[in-house]
């Protein structure tokens, strides 16, 4: 009697497993067309976005120069000066929330640096529409060879990499 119950239980469990797997198989193929429809829709949407003309940035940035300094560890760094302008008719924006920068020296991207020589608060200062603020950001450097500075609008980061501003700066 005990063997019959075990066999019946095993058969029932096997049957349930077969039904569950069959359900997964049909659910997967039934949802497969939806997935490809979603993929087609996403691809079409992506193509449409690429075909749209480039959106104008809501901010302007000029690179106003740079000066050498030392970071808190005594290592060389460069402080880059920017003018950040909110040209939108929207809410206030800050340099940090609206842009991202890339600074290269000898083909290698420079890391951000911490120094007393830069006004770090200026990066977070909100600027209302139609107004500007002077901004400073520090970057670690290896020596006094030239740096390349590029500033991009965050809102256009997926529309290609057209910088708002770019400049090669001599540190020597």
From TrEMBL:
Keyword field contains Signal: yes
Keyword entries, A-Z: Signal
Superkingdom to which the source organism belongs: Bacteria
Regions of compositional bias (Basic and acidic residues) in chain numbering: 46-56
Keyword Iron-sulfur tagged: no
Residues spanning the signal sequence: 1-22
Region described as Disordered: 27-56
InterPro entries on file: DUF5067, Immunoprotect_excell_Ig-like
Domain spans labelled DUF5067: 35-152
Biased composition (Low complexity): 27-42
Annotated protein name in UniProt: DUF5067 domain-containing protein
Lineage per the UniProt record: Bacteria, Bacillati, Actinomycetota, Coriobacteriia, Coriobacteriales
């Amino acid at each position: 009697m005990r063997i019959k119950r075990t066999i019946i239980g095993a058969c029932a469990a096997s049957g349930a497993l077969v039904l569950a797997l069959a359900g997964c198989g049909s659910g997967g193929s039934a949802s497969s067309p939806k997935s490809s429809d979603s993929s087609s829709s996403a691809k079409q949407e992506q193509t449409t976005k690429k075909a749209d003309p480039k959106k104008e940035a809501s901010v302007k940035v000029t690179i106003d120069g740079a000066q050498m300094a030392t970071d808190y560890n005594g290592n060389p760094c460069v402080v880059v000066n920017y003018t950040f302008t909110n040209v939108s008719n929207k809410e206030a924006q800050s340099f940090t929330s609206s842009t991202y920068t890339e600074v290269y020296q000898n083909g290698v991207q420079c890391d951000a640096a911490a120094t007393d020589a830069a006004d770090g608060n200026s990066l977070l200062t909100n600027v209302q529409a139609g107004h500007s603020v002077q901004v400073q950001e520090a970057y670690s450097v290896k020596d006094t060879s030239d740096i390349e500075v590029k500033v991009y609008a965050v809102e256009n980061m997926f529309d290609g990499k057209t910088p708002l501003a770019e400049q090669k700066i001599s540190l020597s």
